[in-house]
Amino acid sequence: MKKIIIIGAGGHGQVVADALLLMKEAEPVAFLDENPALIGTEVLGIPVPGGNSYLSKIEHDGVVLALGNNALRKRIFEELTKAGENLFTVIHPSAIISPSVKIGAGCMILAGAVINTGAEIKDNTIINTNSTIEHHNMIGPHAHIAPGSTLGGEVTVGEESMVGIGATVLPRVIIGNKAMLGAGSTATRKIPDGVTAAGMPAKRLKF
Ligand SMILES: CC(C)(COP(=O)(O)OP(=O)(O)OC[C@H]1O[C@@H](n2cnc3c(N)ncnc32)[C@H](O)[C@@H]1OP(=O)(O)O)[C@@H](O)C(=O)NCCC(=O)NCCS
């Protein structure tokens, strides 16, 4: 049984822990979290001894970064990879994943997610509850596909981008890097790098 440390004991971390508890080959041994209110407590029966400095003090085979903020998750992923840590991919047993799918390191594939033929999920990406990644999607590193979203065939999602809860991306549409598609929105054409778009069809938000 691989011993896995979960970084982040918040809501998302607890969802990731639930998935990990159901995996046959791995188990959560600790949460690490900088929140003083959590340090010294147990969350879901899993100890929270302290923040990230505890990584070297606890025996483990892998780490998963249960942090919703894509930029923060990317930074810590790069630091830990450089330090030689094994970034572990958590897959909830109820996820349906085609055998042809490629999944990178440190990903979180959560309950009810469907990932179809030929899709590629790069490192440190969250494929959240009940989302559908259709055939031949390319989901970039450090991205987050939020719960209940649906991506048609051959969609590309760039690095550090987010597809909001319940959003839809039409087939072959490109979501650029560090882009955001709002909750419940429908992307009918490309969302450029760094742009937040929302609505149906999704339009660039004015700030
Ligand atoms: C798109 C989003 C990032 C915009 O957030 P924001 O920058 O704080 O924008 P605001 O809430 O100030 O809204 C700006 C305008 O966009 C509209 N808007 C915001 N989100 C929208 C959405 N999802 N769909 C349609 N319109 C939206 C607002 O009504 C507002 O319109 P107005 O200027 O006419 O009043 C945010 O609303 C969103 O959808 N986030 C996704 C959250 C999510 O899915 N999280 C997953 C967690 S697991």
What are the defining features of this structure?
binds coenzyme A, UDP N-Acetylglucosamine Acyltransferase, domain 1, Rossmann fold, alpha/beta, 6-stranded parallel β-sheet, 8-stranded mixed β-sheet, 2 domains, 207 residues, globular, 2 helices, single chain, 24 strands
How does this model look, in words?
The chain is of the alpha/beta class and 207 residues long. The chain is built from two helices and 24 strands. It folds into two domains: 2-88, 3-Layer(aba) Sandwich (Rossmann fold); 89-196, 3 Solenoid (UDP N-Acetylglucosamine Acyltransferase, domain 1). The strands form five sheets. Strands 6-9-12-15-18-21-23-24 form an eight-stranded mixed beta sheet, with helices on one face. The mean pLDDT is 97. The chain starts with a strand and ends with a strand. The longest helix has 13 residues, at 70-82. It has helices at 11-22, 70-82, and strands at residues 2-7, 26-32, 41-43, 46-48, 62-65, 90-91, 96-97, 102-103, 108-109, 114-115, 120-121, 126-127, 132-133, 138-139, 144-145, 150-151, 156-157, 162-163, 168-169, 174-175, 180-181, 186-187, 196-198, 203-204.
